[in-house]
Amino acid sequence: MQKKILSGVQPTRQLTIGNYFGALINWQKTQYEGESLFCVVDLHAITQYQNPQDLYQNSLKVAALYLACGIDPVHSKIFIQSHVRQHTELSWLLGCSTPLGWLNRMTQFKDKAGQNTDKVGLGLYAYPVLMAADILLYHTTHVPVGADQKQHIELTRDMAISFNHTYGQPVFTIPEPVITAEGAKIMSLRDGTKKMSKSDPSDLSRILLTDTPDDIVQKIKKAKTDTQPLPDSIDELIVRPEAKNLVQLFALATKQSMQQVLHQYAGQNFSVFKPLLADVLVNVIEPIQVSYNTFMTDPMQLNIYLKQGADHAAAIAETTVKHVKQVMGFYS
Q: Catalytic: which of 4, 77, 198, 244?
């Protein structure tokens, strides 16, 4: 069976260096291993209120960043999730046979809802079902995700296996999660124990792919660290999460191992290391911004790619939904 890859990012605010090192750079590498689809998951974004104008603009910006970060529109397809109506249709069909007990085990819902489970919308609770529909629509075999999304892929597998068993047909392909060992989780610049997030209240917690060089220098300068110099062993970073995070960023930006970075800079204070880190991050981000600005200045070509991607995705998705409805007994 041909390898089929699907992944996506929500258009909530702007993408960070964490999105790049944790996801986009991996997409760039793996897209030629099979048929690749990358969507801007705007339907997932509205599980929490989004300013309409921001959602509209951010959807376009995220798509432009996909291309700027190396997604090849000749080989891969990019599209806006809401442009393919079958995502919501299959979500309902799957949701009707998904036990509540499975959804109740989802830790992300518990984390996001907190003590306000009676006040959050249905969308946040049903989010994993829509995510399963995203994946199963395209007979996806491999899903590049962060470690925090692995539970959702496991649920998708359970739903596909259950559906196939109930109707006695191999309707859905059983997907596999693809989680990169290194760089899969870039941490906040303000708290090395928390993942870098687009939604963190502090703008100083993250580096955006659209940040200026001056922004990057200032954010790295203000990044939380400790008073000790850099060690000569990775083991010594285990109890120093902020230091470990900056060393990992440097390693990823320069395509080295963390141990190689420590070999070069062991004994250096952060007053020396931070400016060097800012420079290498600027070197990574500047070429991305050149391409991104080209698409955003004149988005006609970007819209062509999005239309082509949506048409391609919809053709596959409609075949899948027709098959699902047929085996479920819907009158045609």
A: 198
Q: Is 41 helix (H, G, I), strand (E, B) or coil?
A: coil
The catalytically annotated residue of 112, 185, 221, 325 is 112
CA distance 27 to 37: 10
- C-alpha distances in angstroms, 227 versus 166, 185, 232, 249? 60, 24, 16, 19
pLDDT tier for residue 119 given thresholds of 50, 70 and 90: confident
Question: Which pTM was predicted?
Answer: 0.91
**Active-site entry in 195, 219, 244, 274:** 195
> Could you tell me the CA-to-CA distances from 221 to 81, 217, 271, 276, 321 in Å, in that order?
38, 6, 8, 10, 51
**Catalytic: 61?**
no
Is residue 195 part of the annotated active site? The answer reads yes
36 beta partners: 5
Assign 3-class secondary structure to 254-320: HCCCHHHHHHHHCCCCHHHHHHHHHHHHHHHHHHHHHHHHHHHHCCHHHHHHHHHHHHHHHHHHHHH
Q: Domains in the chain, ordered, with CATH?
A: 4-179+299-328 (3.40.50.620), 203-293 (1.10.240.10)
Give the tens place of pLDDT for each residue, 65-114.
999 999 999 999 999 999 999 999 999 999 999 999 999 888 877 777 66
Query: What is the CB neighbour count within 10 angstroms for residue 109?
Result: 18
> Does 185 participate in catalysis according to the annotation?
no
Query: Both tokens of residue 93?
Result: 């069909």
pLDDT (0 to 100) of residue 117: 73
